[in-house]
């Protein structure tokens, strides 16, 4: 096997209460990548379609992540990477993570799987460092492991796969503005009041428990963010209206996807997820803001081989 074409899923990081630690993978939105083994050593990005992104290996998240992996192997060959970029950068659904995770996952397969998933997360985090200035793992972990993931610790790296209830669907609306993760991190406070921390870690525990016991009401009650949402929601047009509408339409909970501007809601069943999509759309149609919308089951597999 010298070439792989793969689907690299979009991801929702934070999942309301779990800033920098929780994430989930989506099924209906993601990039496609082709990774090819070639005789010349090193990593070359040969083609990017869909978005204007740098081709230079050291300026491209996929290139940097791939080089981080190759630095820990002995090979006398190299790799070419083609990216069909379908996730818009700055959308809040793990655009850079999909490319970083895809590159290291495919190279690991072509090398005969010398590395496990946690090592692949570590390499892919170098792509995140290039994109955002911080090597956070909460997007690359679900892209590589699939389903819901918890980054229990990033130093040393400890990633836990969390049970994914089978009836859980995500609806994601992306108002067509770009929010850079680095900017959305800059505005955060570095200290938080103890009373907010108590409510937040109660929700993290509640959400994990709800995911394992498949208790959809508990999942809903736990999807509240007392720390990040009050600050970042100001960057997102009509955020409160989208959230209120989606809860009225039956969503279990609704919050900012990653660093935004995408807004996600989780629902029990596809029918409700579709109603939630309609309710979110109506807000942006009224105020005249263009959007993309995605409805997706939670992707338990993560990256998938296309050919
Ligand atoms: N946890 C990160 C943040 C995710 O919210 O800044 C960025 O996609």
Fold and architecture overview:
With 307 residues, the chain is α+β, with helices and mostly antiparallel strands. Helix content is 37%, strand content 27%. The protein has 2 domains: 166 residues, Ribosomal Protein S5, domain 2 (2-Layer Sandwich), CATH 3.30.230; 130 residues, GHMP kinase, C-terminal domain (Alpha-Beta Plaits), CATH 3.30.70. Strands 1, 2, 3, 4, 5, 6 and 11 form a 7-stranded mixed β-sheet that branches. It has a 4-stranded antiparallel β-sheet with strand order 8-9-7-10, with helices on both faces. Helix 1 packs parallel to helix 2, helix 2 packs antiparallel against helix 3 and helix 9 packs antiparallel against helix 10. The longest helix is centred in the middle third of the chain and has 20 residues. Bound molecules: L-homoserine. L-homoserine (HSE) binds next to helix 5.
| Tally of distinct domains | 2
Residue share in helix? 25-40%
C-alpha geometry: globular
Portion of residues in beta strands equals 25-35%
Sheet with the most strands, sense and barrel status: 7 strands, mixed
Strands, total number: 11
What keyword list fits this structure?
307 residues, alpha+beta, Ribosomal Protein S5, domain 2, 11 strands, 37% helix
Structure in a nutshell:
The protein is an alpha+beta fold. Helix content is 37%, strand content 27%.
Per-chain topology:
Blueprint: E1 3-13, E2 22-38, E3 42-49, H1 61-70, E4 78-84, H2 95-110, H3 117-132, H4 140-145, E5 148-154, E6 157-162, E7 168-175, H5 181-186, H6 194-213, H7 216-222, H8 229-232, H9 239-248, E8 253-256, E9 263-268, H10 270-287, E10 291-297, E11 304-305
Parallel strand pairs: 3-4
Antiparallel strand pairs: 1-2, 1-11, 2-4, 2-5, 5-6, 7-9, 7-10, 8-9
Bound molecules: L-homoserine (HSE).
């Amino acid at each position: 096997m010298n070439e792989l074409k793969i689907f690299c899923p979009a991801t929702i990081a934070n999942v309301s209460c779990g800033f920098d630690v929780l994430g989930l993978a989506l099924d209906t939105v993601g990039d496609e990548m082709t990774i090819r083994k070639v005789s010349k050593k090193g990593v070359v990005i040969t083609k990017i379609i869909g978005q204007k992104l740098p081709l230079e290996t050291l300026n491209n998240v996929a290139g940097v992540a791939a080089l981080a992996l190759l630095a820990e192997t002995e090979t006398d060959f190299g790799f070419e990477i083609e990216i069909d970029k379908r996730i818009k950068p700055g959308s809040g659904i793990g655009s850079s993570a999909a490319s970083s995770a895809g590159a290291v996952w495919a190279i690991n397969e072509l090398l005969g799987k010398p590395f496990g998933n946690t090592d692949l997360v570590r390499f892919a985090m170098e792509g995140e460092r290039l994109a955002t200035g911080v090597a956070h793992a909460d997007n690359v972990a679900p892209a590589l492991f699939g389903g819901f993931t918890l980054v229990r610790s990033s130093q040393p790296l400890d990633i836990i796969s969390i049970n994914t209830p089978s009836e859980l669907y995500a609806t994601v609306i992306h108002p067509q503005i770009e929010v850079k993760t680095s900017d959305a991190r800059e505005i955060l406070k570095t200290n938080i009041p103890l009373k907010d921390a108590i409510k937040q870690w109660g929700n993290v525990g509640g959400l994990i428990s709800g995911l394992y016991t498949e208790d959809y009401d508990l999942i809903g009650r736990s999807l509240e963010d007392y720390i990040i949402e009050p600050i970042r929601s100001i960057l997102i047009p009509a955020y409160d209206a989208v959230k209120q509408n989606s809860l009225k339409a039956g969503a279990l909970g609704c919050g900012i996807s990653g660093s935004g501007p995408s807004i996600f809601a989780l629902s029990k069943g596809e029918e409700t997820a579709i109603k939630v999509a309609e309710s979110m759309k109506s807000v942006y149609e009224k105020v005249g803001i263009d959007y993309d919308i995605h409805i997706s089951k939670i992707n338990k597999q993560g990256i998938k081989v296309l050919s």
